[in-house]
Amino acid sequence: MVRNKPYPIRTCVVCGQKDYKSNLLRITCYKGKIKLDEKQRLPGRGAYVCSKSCLQKLNSLRIWKKLARSLRHPLEETAYKEFKKEIEGFLERGKYV
Hints:
Layout: E1 9-11, E2 18-20, E3 25-30, E4 33-37, E5 46-49, H1 52-57, H2 61-71, H3 77-93
Antiparallel strand pairs: 1-2, 3-4, 3-5
């Protein structure tokens, strides 16, 4: 079967590189918390990250502010610390190349 629709293209919030949605990792604001959405199924506004190096750059406060702006979510220090721990756990599991 031939797909008539174009594949969705998204932009990395860190470096600005454009790629197919399926090749990027989604970050979403879900129930007031910013979470990694590995399966791209959580509801809410999403932002995308293209690579492991860009994901690691989210530890920077400057990039965190950029992410918070794109998710339209207020910047809170506790949310930043929780998300930072989630990123570290995700990278330790080695799921993202």
